[in-house]
Amino acid sequence: MARIVMKFGGTSMAGIERIRAVAARVKREVDSGNQVAVVVSAMAGETDRLVQLCKEAAALYDPREYDVVVASGEQVTSGLLAITLQGMGLNAKSYMGWQLPIRASGHSAALIENIDVDVLERVFDGGGIAVIPGFQGVTSEGAVATLGRGGSDTSAVALAAAMNADRCDIYTDVDGVYTTDPRIVPQARKLDMVTYEEMLELASVGAKVLQTRSVGLAMRYNMPLTVLSSFEDKPGTLIVGDHQLEESGMERNIITGIAHDKNEAMVTLTGLPDKAGTVAGIFAPLAEANVNVDMIVQSVPRTGEPSVLTFTVPTASLAHSVAELQKVQDDIGFQEILTDTNVVKISAVGVGMRSNAGIAARMFQTLAERGINILAITTSEIKVSVLIPEEYTELAVRVLHSAYGLDANREDVA
Amino acid sequence: MARIVMKFGGTSMAGIERIRAVAARVKREVDSGNQVAVVVSAMAGETDRLVQLCKEAAALYDPREYDVVVASGEQVTSGLLAITLQGMGLNAKSYMGWQLPIRASGHSAALIENIDVDVLERVFDGGGIAVIPGFQGVTSEGAVATLGRGGSDTSAVALAAAMNADRCDIYTDVDGVYTTDPRIVPQARKLDMVTYEEMLELASVGAKVLQTRSVGLAMRYNMPLTVLSSFEDKPGTLIVGDHQLEESGMERNIITGIAHDKNEAMVTLTGLPDKAGTVAGIFAPLAEANVNVDMIVQSVPRTGEPSVLTFTVPTASLAHSVAELQKVQDDIGFQEILTDTNVVKISAVGVGMRSNAGIAARMFQTLAERGINILAITTSEIKVSVLIPEEYTELAVRVLHSAYGLDANREDVA
């Protein structure tokens, strides 16, 4: 007997026929003797519809009331799944965030602070199934809270951790995590196993299978996650810690995957005076404005001459960033603010990179051979990222996927 | 300064533009210095959609989970109205049934047991507006409960009573209570004032402006109700007690209105043995099955001979009633069960009837002149009802409306 959390995304819950298929999967786990809590998303498109209604109601909508409105989508699907499971003869009940309760830190992009599992323990003791709406909790004032878009993944992992689950299965509309976007590279392969850190890097650079927060949370609690398809019966991708990966003894590529992220914009400041505090004077106001600066490149001019500074920010923060920079322009005394949104960040990710030199070099070499200009570079222990012109996205992903030996049926290349 | 409850129905809440119009009405009351609680329905059609989803999920859906699903419609509109009011610079917040709380007796067609007004008092003390989803409460186990279709009217009246409101205004898609259905009689007039009892009789016989339960509740607490249009700025119909009606000194017709109800089915049992306990043996099982038997006519045969019994039941209960009757058929020994759904109940209602003889006689006379056959009759202190073949519905309503002097611009007829 295992204790598991099963989480189903919006496309899996889109309509009664699909909910019936979800219920059949839940039944199979229960019939195998497992204790099951199910976390559900709203029907696909429903949260967008509700968000749109809030925006139409008032441009500056109140997060407290926004949460009341948008949390309703998951309330509906959890009730419907409970009804469907009961119709199959199972003992299922729904529990809203305020009923368990799932304590959340505030509104609209709240963090989960604490989950009371007393109710769940009683449900399991009675041989029951708990159906829990994802994405929602309750504030200390007793108001409905939501966790931010994609928050249902985080709900599932937090719940799994709180109830000491053996694993957390994330059912979605893809059948696992791939070496890269299969729409770009048909030879992309499904990965059997990735580590939390790899998944974090892949997720943060555009492989949107799981919400980044949920992976971080799973890593913190060492909760095994599986990403698998709601629609097909085949094994998915297991996401575990380094240790479990090593124990598995699985042969792996040095590089696990290639990701791309078009949500970065490049900012270039020209004519920066060569004096102390210039760079700090630029990044401090951006940090205060909660802008997440990523790649930074500074030209190194001759002493005493003005230099050029290039960095990237999320595209959504670009207008805001430029406004902040204009405020300090006269004080700092730089010349121009140039922006470019036609850029893409391409990343190679893999824990194998730690013990292998030459990974970055191979990337630069491969891109140079195709005449692709690198605008900025950033690296972490398990990732190398480059910023390139957006028009080269697909070409760069394909050549790197191949260069790192990730193409299916070409094991010999590695 | 007055303390008021404003209730808005589904057509008034159908979409952001209409919610904005609702908010403008609320603002006007607040600007006049009133303390306002607003009760809202789900957007028109939303509750039907949610009920349909539950039915598709499982034929015998669990009332607990049904309530979770269908209560979401009002959750959405209350959040949206709060956002819209805030957008107009007003201090508004939504409070779900479980947040106040509104204690309800059980699931799906729950009664309101108790409303805690502490939160509301604090809202009013702070100059705020409370937006409350109609139709919902919370059970003693902490589960979401709904009050049955049309329950938002009841929510509004119960809330008005609990918070000692000066009045409860029901905004809807008609501009008041009419002497009869204006689609049948163009000369129908809007009534300025009706009594709770008249409204109860009119509502129970098909004038579906207000949920019957809400009128009964208003009568119990002597809460003045006004039915008025969300879409037009004109006075509606005030619903008050006999006493207030008398105090108003208003000249009124003896008959207040003519209603019709097609949701009755006629059941005829033939060949009933003339022995003690026969009639009891028929109605006892129907009562146990919660079938609401209305009009009863028994033919009076010669002693010792079999008789015929005719009565009406709600059309929705007909199949169920026939099944119950078939179970006792052999025991009781009647011959046949005949049913007819092509019947309509026509009622003349008015408190003036109490002190006036000849009201029923005029009805029978008027219908007889048109050759309309009366199948059954029932009367109360302020109502005379007849069952007639359905095809005469419009004709009967028109001639009675005229016969009782209700046609507009024909005061001389009265």
Automatic annotation (TrEMBL), chains A, B:
InterPro entries: AceGlu_kinase-like_sf, ACT-like_dom_sf, ACT_Aspartokinase, ACT_dom, AKii-LysC-BS, Asp/Glu/Uridylate_kinase, Asp_kin_monofn, Asp_kinase. It catalyses: L-aspartate + ATP = 4-phospho-L-aspartate + ADP. ATP binds at residues 7-10, 172-173, 178, 183, 208-209. NCBIfam families: asp_kinases, PRK06635.1-2, PRK06635.1-4. The keyword ATP-binding applies. One of its GO terms (biological process) is threonine biosynthetic process. Pfam families: AA_kinase, ACT, ACT_9. It comes from the Bacteria. Gene3D superfamilies: Acetylglutamate kinase-like, VC0802-like. This is Aspartokinase. Keywords: Amino-acid biosynthesis, ATP-binding, Kinase, Lysine biosynthesis, Nucleotide-binding, Transferase. It comes from Sphingomonas xanthus. One of its GO terms (cellular component) is cytosol. Pathway: Amino-acid biosynthesis; L-lysine biosynthesis via DAP pathway; (S)-tetrahydrodipicolinate from L-aspartate: step 1/4; Amino-acid biosynthesis; L-methionine biosynthesis via de novo pathway; L-homoserine from L-aspartate: step 1/3; Amino-acid biosynthesis; L-threonine biosynthesis; L-threonine from L-aspartate: step 1/5. Belongs to the aspartokinase family. One of its GO terms (molecular function) is aspartate kinase activity. Residues 267-351 form the ACT domain. Substrate binds at residues 47, 74. It is an enzyme of class 2 (transferase). Its EC number is 2.7.2.4. Coiled coil: none annotated.
